[in-house]
Amino acid sequence: MQAVWRSVRLQGTQLCSFQASTMAAPLTSDYLKTKTHAELRQMCMRLEQGQSAEEPRRKRKQKQFQFAQHNQRKVAFKVAYFGEKYHGLAYQDDTPETVEGYIFRALERACLIQSRETCMFSRCGRTDKGVSALSQVVALYVRTNLEDCPSMKPRTQPLPVKKAEKAAAKGQEEIPYVQILNRLLPEDIRVLAWSVAAEDFDARFSCQGRMYRYFFFKQNHDLSLMRHAAASFEGEHDFRNFCKPDIKGGVTNFRRRVNRTSVEISQHDGTDSTEACHPAYQLCEITIHGTAFLWHQIRCMVAVLFMVGNRQEEPSIVSSLLDIEARPCKPQYDMASEIPLVLWDCEFEGLDWQYEQPTHDGLQAHLYKLWQQHAMRVGLVMGMTQPLRHPTLSSGQEWLESKGGNPVPLTAGDHVLLANRQTGQSIEVRIKAREEALAAKAKREADESSQDGAKRPCLKDT
Questions:
Q1: How far apart are CA 429 and CA 422, in angstroms?
Q2: For this structure, is 128 an active site residue?
Q3: What are the φ/ψ torsions at residue 284 (nearest 5 degrees)?
Q4: Contact 241, 327 (CB under 8 A)
Q5: pLDDT band at 56 (very low <50, low <70, confident <90, very high)
Q6: Alpha helices of 155-279 — where are they, by DSSP H?
Q7: Helix, strand, or coil here: 194?
Q8: How far, in Å, CA of 215 to CA of 158, rounded?
Q9: Over the stretch 257-316, which tens digit does the pLDDT of each residue have?
Q10: How far apart are CA 205 and CA 122, in angstroms?
Q11: Catalytic residue among 94, 128, 202, 345
C-alpha cells in the first residue's frame, strides 16, 4: 500500500506508474492534481483491492411520472388470451399469474395509468383458471395526448413550458395504445382493438350479450341428441342446477336468459388430413349465447350435454333439471374441463372499435406463428402413429373402431343417472345458513366491542 501511495505522490507531473485493469483510461498527472490527499488515498485503496480507481457512480434516481399533468380519457380494450397457464382473468393479490395482472403491469410500465385502484377498471366477463377469450372487453381511464375528446378527465396541474410545446407540436395524434401494450404483454395475451367509451360505460353492465364456445372431439357423441337437449336451455330459466352457487358472493337470483344454442362440427380445426375425417379426430363446438351467466354455468351445461351425447342420459334431463319445483336441489356431477372453453364474443352498443392496420398485420403474423407451433406438434403426434402401422398390428383406424369410435369408452355401468344421484342442500337452506352465520358474526363483534369499552378505565375529575 505504501509503495502504491508513494508512486502516486512522487509522479505529480508524469504518467502514473500503475493502471487498474478495470479502468478505461490511464491516470495522468493532470488528472491526479485535481484530487485531494484523501481522494488519492481512497483511489490507492480501491486499486490495491482490484477495483476501479474511480468511485462507482450512483444510479440516477428515476423521475416519477407526473400523471396530474396529463389528460385522461375512458376507453375500452378488446383483449384475446389463451388462459391455460393463467390463474384466471381477474387480478389477485396473492398471485401475479393472472391475465389482468399482466395487463395492469403493462399499463403501468407504459405510464398509461397511475395504478389499478385509480383507473376505474371494469371487465365484461370473469373467466376462470384455464378459460380463454377471443373478445374479452375491459374499460378504464388511460392517459391521452388529446386536449379535447369525449369522456375526458382534464389535467389538474399545468404542463411545463417545454412539455407543452412538444404536446402542441404533436397536434391531435393519439397514443398508439394497441401497439404499445402488445410490446409489453406476453405472447399469449393480445390487445386487438380499442374504442372510445362514455363516462357511464361499464364493461360488465353495459354488455348486451355474451357468446361462449366449447370445443370437443366428436368421437361417439350423438350430435343430434345434444342439439335436442341444448334447445331446452333456450329462454329464461332458473339455472341453479347448472352452476356453482356463489352464496358467499351474495348471488341469490339464479334466473338467466339463454338466447340461442348450437352443436356443430367446427370450421376452426385447421386440418384437412384423412385422419381428421374419423369422428375421433373431428373437432366440434357447442355455442351458447346469452345475456349473462352464473359461476361455472357453461361448464355444467356442457357436462350434461356430454352425458346426453354419450346416450347416458335422455335429452329430457335438461328440462327436468330446469324444473326447480320438481328438482330444487342440484345432483352431484363433475363439470366439463375448462381448457376448451372460450369467451368468443361480447356485444355492446355505442363502441366504435379502432383497428390499426400496421398493428393488425403484426397481430396476424403473431397468431400465424402460434398456429404453426401448435400445428407442428399435432403433425409430430400424428407422425408417431406411423411406426405402429405394422402388418401384424392393428392400425390406428382399426383400434378406434374396436373402441367404438371413442378411445375412452363409457359403459352403462360407469354412469349413475342424475335422477338417482345424491344432491346437495337447496339454495334456500344455504342462503338461510349464510344469513344466520353473518348475524352471529355481527353479534359476536358487537359483544367484543362492548366488552372492550367496559374494560377501558375511566378518567376521574381532579
A1: 16
A2: yes
A3: -125, 170
A4: yes
A5: low
A6: 161-170, 177-184, 223-231
A7: strand
A8: 53
A9: 999 999 999 876 555 444 456 777 889 999 999 999 999 999 999 999 999 999 999 999
A10: 9
A11: 128
